[in-house]
Specification:
Residues 380-642 form the FAD/NAD(P)-binding domain. The protein is α/β, with parallel strands linked by helices and 676 residues long. Helix content is 30%, strand content 17%.
Length: 676
Amino acid sequence: MTTTSSFPHLLEPLDLGFTSLANRSLMGSMHTGLEEEKGGFKKLAAFYEARAKGGVGLIVTGGISPNARGRLSPFGCQLSYFWQVGKHKQVTEAVHKYPTKICLQLLHAGRYSYHPFSLSSSKVKSPINPFTPSEMSVRQIKSTIKDFAHSASLAAKANYDGVEIMGSEGYLINQFSCVRVNKRTDEWGGSIENRMRLACEIVKAVRAKVGKEFIIIFRLSMLDLVEGGNSWQDVVTMANAIEAAGATIINTGIGWHEARVPTIVTSVPRAAFTWITERMKKEVSIPLVTTNRINTPEVAEQVLADGHADMVSMARPFLADENFIQKAIENKSEEINTCIGCNQACLDHVFKQKRASCLVNPQACYETELVIEKSTVSKKLAVVGAGPAGMAFSVYAAKKGHHVTLFDKSEALGGQFNVAKQIPGKEEFYETIRYFDVQLKKHNVTVEFNAEKSAESLIEAGFDEVILATGISPRKLNIPGFEHPKVKTYLQVLKDKVAVGDNVAIIGAGGIGFDVACYLAEGKSLTTDKDAWLKSWGVDKNYTENGALLAQPEHEKSQKEIYLLQRKTTKVGAGLGKTSGWVHRATLQKNGVNMMAGVTYKAIDDQGLHIEIDGKVQVLPVDDVIICAGQEPERSLYQSLLDADVTTHLIGGANVAAELDAKRAIRQAAELAMTI
């Protein structure tokens, strides 16, 4: 019996004339760091092969520079020489075992190049880069156009099905197309016709070099989201010219990397920017790809069914689950390991020159290293604690063939994820709990709730090994008045929903402190109200101003007086994620949260919280003091089990509780499962 697909638009083939794509999914460009590792292309081939096997229609690789000066970093990847073709063939041969097509992304970083030899349209430094670029001479511009065409021809020789020319996100071509950076007065600057000349000439040169039967995707910045960005008419003029120059597909680019509008983090509503692609569909006739925060087949299907685009680009969702499309084909979307948009193991790693992976899927980019193989001996394993570490270990161990029983003293899966999902903008954590719930049932893990285990009960049950994923306990602080009724733990506030007054002090400005501040300040989440969210961050859907920015964001400031305090003298929030920390700080700033560093806590009493900063003592007249100043590992069972000679492992917060770290917890769980 044939099953009717729940996702007919997503799974419909796309005819490009000279070739066709198996479905409407595009795995968006992601730099993994494997491109620069020794022997990395073999691992990269395995990474892309897994996604091709999983059914994605079209893959776009991480950005590869057409020349040395365009590299993202001093030793960044480029494709300029014939001897480089061989390693790329490893990738294309692996992908072409399946119906999937693959395009190489050609990216010249311009002033985003993290080295002193960077070039741009003008000598204008980026606010996110310490290096000031040199202004390109006309000769260098023409040489760069040739380099793009040459790299494309080498990509064709490496058997790529096409290239994507990166013209958005504030990279070189975008730097030419906008007056924000382009201050030139020659034929490469001034009017939009001149500013877009580089983009058009590159597309023409590439098409001339590779012939008609080769996919050329152009990534067009449809929303610059920066001052000095393009007007809507500029964008349309450029799109028409790109189509005329020979592009096969136009992909949607949203925001420059230096934009102060979040575009991909978890607090961005799903499919928040597809409206701009829909608007462009009225202007061009070639297929359009839409993108950003589309992370389930249901969302992708709706976007396509509503006519917002011809294809949907999803990058990180294919990190989270390589079988995303295959599961959609089989109507098993409940089994998809959903991307939660956290950036912690993907973008944050890449920006630190580390290999990318995925918080919810540590096997991503480790396909040849973190491998699940059936165990020769099936063990009876007890896992105590059903938080991220416990759930992940149970699933991986069960896949290996072990008999796993998962215990938790509460009545639900999730552990600290049940706390995190309460935070406005972090609702995606519901998806991870759903995924593990499905997987635990699928792999026959016995789950027992309301089961607070003693060492004796575990020993009597005769488990071969015990894995303690018991999490953490909030740390108590040595402050006079710590037992005062004003004092509450973050768990009381987030989990138990204890009432909090209008004047609040939060002690501890790590990730938990920021979460509590956001929870209290935001009040309600805007993730289900896209228009309100866009206005809150100053995005103008009417596109009346260049860059599509409102003159003033429309955000309702919190009515609470909140103080977020830390002992450290460093910038509050300095330890947050590299690519998402600024969003958390900006959210609190919009809500008028007082962020204070270098604080000494003197006492808590009926007056409030007594503190000292720079030698000055003051009292914060608060109703409540919420403690977010760290936690201790919960290991009460550990020593008793060791004393009884039971092989016992600590993972997650029970192992290290310095900061709640789901990325480390899930990876640690996977690595332990591989060895048992």
